[in-house]
Amino acid sequence: MFSMRFIVQWIVSEKRKESVVPIQFWYYSLAGSLTLLLYAIHRKDPVFILGQSLGTFIYIRNLILIYRKQAQVSKSIP
């Protein structure tokens, strides 16, 4: 999951000829983080759980910010 997010980012950036972080990047990040979080919970490793929980929170927050911005843009278009 984590490798795929960089591949997607690279392909999109190459197509647009500029550095771009597509929304799929955040979904792959979230999926990878959730997978590792489940593994950390399975291992009952509090440090690993804390680390993956923070990453998961950050990825979810980025998706929320993206969707809020899209909603604002769509409201401003008559």
Describe the structure in your own words:
86% of the residues lie in helices and 0% in strands. The chain starts with a helix and ends with a helix. The chain has one domain (2-76). By secondary structure, the protein is mainly alpha-helical.
In short:
This protein is mostly helical. Helix content is 86%, strand content 0%.
List keywords for this structure.
78 residues; mainly alpha; flat
Q: Mind sketching the topology for me?
A:
Elements: H1 2-16, H2 23-43, H3 46-76
Helix pairs in contact: 1-2, 2-3
Instruction: Give unreliable regions as ranges.
Output: none
First and last CA, distance: 39 Å
How much helical structure, as a percent, in the residues? over 70%
The rough form would be described as flat
- Helix and strand element order: HHH
Fraction in beta strands: under 5%
